[in-house]
Amino acid sequence: MLKAHLIHLISRLSRIRHTMTDSCIFCKIVSGEAKAEIVHRDAQVTAFRDIHPVAPTHILIVPNRHIESVSALETDDEQLVGHIFTVARKVAHEEGISRGGYRLITNTGIDGGQTVFHLHVHLIGGQRMRHPMG
Fold first, then answer.
1. Is 131 considered catalytic here?
2. Is residue 19 pLDDT above 50, yes or no?
3. Does the residue 130 lie in any domain?
4. Catalytic pick from 52, 120, 122, 131?
5. Is residue 43 part of a domain?
6. Coil vs helix vs strand at 46
């Protein structure tokens, strides 16, 4: 009985995860179903301007494959995470903010402030940033 319940639960979670991926705005941007101002795209990641910028430069860098958050990363994703940071450096240089500096932010989970559940890094710059702790 418990085994059948667990199989049903796993099947249901799988369908929910599939639906989340289908409705994920970042997945839609990566696939071209939703519009965004793309500043970089390669086989692993897509970078685009945030529609609600908090600074003159505010770009989101997302893996092309749906990964919910940092908490969902696996050991096999280490190369991808490194690539995200390399792309951030490249885009910051292209945007002209690398010399003065910039901020990279990743929110994880509801309590961490994550609002779109597709791993993403905010590249923010173009102005002097306040220290987040005061």
1. no
2. no
3. no
4. 120
5. yes
6. strand
